Fold Uracil/xanthine transporter.
Amino acid sequence: MRMQITPKIGLAGVQWMFFILTNTIVVPLTIGKAFHLPSGQIAYALQISFILTGIVCMLQALIGHRYAIMDGPAGLWWGITLSLAASGASGGTSLAAIGGGLAVGYMLAGLMMVVLGWLGFVKILMKLFNPIVISVSLFLLTVQLMMNFFTGMLGIQENGQLSPSVAALSIGIALFVGIVYLKGRGWIGNFAMLFGIMLGWFVYELCFPGSGGGEPHAAGAGMLKLFPWGAPRIDYGILLTSFIVGLINMSNTITALSAAEKLYGQTTTEGQYRRSFLITGLFTMIAPVFGIIPFGTFASSLGLLESTKILHREALVIGGGLFLVLGLIPPLGHWFSNLPLSVGSAVLFVAYLQMFGTAVRTIKGRTFDSKSIYRLALPILLGISIMSISPLVFAGLPAYIRPLAGNGLVIGIIVSILLETCVNWTRLEGQARERQ
């Protein structure tokens, strides 16, 4: 493939690098803490996470789905892993046993993605994920992300209270990014996120010198241990959870690529879906070997594309390549990993506002009455309600049901699929028109 590189695309590639960084940097650090891994092992996981994420992004843009949509450690897998690790520890199960079961479950889930994707299972998924289900998925994903970013902006301290100075700076950064995006002419508005990160990081260092934003971790000391979570073992409860989450993770790819079609003005072919699932599935199988969260297609990339209007996949290739370099040069990766969480959260909070518009446009032209509105209201509001309550509420449920029952995104999607499958909305809409 002939790459078309211009200064604008090159700068967009740098912006992609920061976007990938802010979306992935916290994942290996929190997983390492959850499994009580030594700092050297966490450093290796961070380094390999950079390398694999950079490679998978480049492969997807070049030969996979061929859109400027990143792959990375999936938030759904991340949440399930943290939840199972916490529930296992509180229930008396060793972290090594939980981690070993997760490793096998995730590798088999990756294999399932490769096989089902190659066999054309995408056709069944596309029937289940009609525009209503896709819209519900995007709405709930937007809410989940915005809640996380808003929390990150506040600079929560150990006592659970916000840091007024950090929160004030975050609000200032968010306003700056919004103004540059709305008022900036031409290419200036396209790079509002990049300008916000660079200026915000600089101001943060001036206001809070030496505080840093990343977690303390060694820059590669120690020996690399394979399967650091625990020796591989079969756990049927974890296997079942892994397969369910794997199918939902596949659906996220459908959501992302279906929404991307409208931006790119083209239809995604079956071959693009197959290649996308093949790449994501293979890297999902590799990830647990190094103690990394499995991969998934980031529908949240749509927020960046909507904000920047730069759809060139060459930009993602450059961004993925730069991110790969950060992994290959540990001191450089360590320095970039100190990007303050509050700065990244403030910038992404503004960038992801566009995802709400994507969710609305997905159902553009549809009308709803007092009955048909339930197909949107029930799954969205139920999902948001679950997101808003403490996970401790579900402590009385069996250990391997808790991560699913307590995940508002998962429950909302499942309820939406059930409503679309079991209710004849066309007939209800026809009856409503007759009454009018």
Q: What stands out?
A: Residues 215-222 have pLDDT under 50 and may be disordered.
